[in-house]
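TASK: fixed-backbone design
INPUT:
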């Protein structure tokens, strides 16, 4: 096999990391995955020049990957620049309620709703500051954990029950703006849908997880209605 280099980290791709059945090779250094079927085949008889490898989804910068022969673990911390907005917004939202603590008779249906949102904002802000997500895949199960503060969804799925993974784009609109999130779903063999992970901010993160899970479970990628296109530009 001609020497190929990883387009993400520059390391040499080894034949030991080649999956001939799926025509996929992975980088043992950074976890990047390359699809060998996407290159141009030679039309010259006897020309054994390999097809050009193309990176499908490079390893996202915030992800940490540990993999051995029987186990894969992907983890990352939630904290991002948006906490610079969340912290003052949460304080301002809840400060409106402080004078009401000593006047319970002033509470109304509106204030009760305001309080419920305020409690959620406090929990969400602390989760953004402290939480870490770890996804573990072994020969039996895929397990998602969010900690130290619990978060949903956090499924445990039998690997034998999984038929396919796919990514969905979700748009949350407000009065003046809209925010795009990317969710990773699984289709089980009984055709039921399972939400694996919600709220990723970059499509490359979601596609990397989808393709990495499919590789380690030897799942051939198939199109799913409503999924993000595989040629979506991710940065």
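OUTPUT:
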């Amino acid at each position: 096999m001609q020497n190929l280099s990883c387009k993400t980290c520059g390391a040499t791709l080894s034949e030991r990391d080649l999956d001939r059945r799926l025509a996929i090779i992975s980088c043992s250094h950074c976890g990047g995955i390359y699809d060998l079927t996407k290159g141009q085949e030679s039309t010259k008889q006897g020309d054994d020049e390999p097809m050009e490898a193309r990176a499908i989804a490079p390893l996202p910068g915030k992800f940490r990957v540990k993999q051995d022969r029987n186990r894969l673990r992907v983890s990352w911390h939630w904290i991002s620049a948006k906490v610079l907005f969340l912290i003052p917004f949460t304080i301002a939202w809840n400060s409106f309620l402080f004078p009401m603590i000593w006047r319970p008779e002033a509470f109304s249906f509106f204030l009760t709703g305001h309080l419920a949102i305020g409690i959620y904002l406090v929990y969400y802000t602390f989760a953004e500051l402290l939480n870490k997500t770890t996804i573990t895949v072994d020969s039996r199960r895929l397990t998602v954990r969010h900690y130290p503060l619990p978060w949903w969804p956090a499924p445990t799925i039998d690997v034998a029950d999984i038929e396919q993974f796919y990514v969905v784009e979700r748009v949350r609109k407000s009065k003046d703006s809209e925010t795009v999130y990317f969710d990773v779903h699984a289709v089980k063999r009984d055709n039921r849908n399972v939400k694996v992970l919600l709220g990723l901010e970059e499509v490359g993160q979601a596609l990397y997880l989808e393709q990495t899970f499919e590789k380690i479970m030897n799942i051939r990628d198939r199109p799913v209605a409503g999924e993000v296109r595989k040629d979506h530009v991710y940065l």
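COMMENT: Confidence is low (pLDDT under 50) at residues 39-55.
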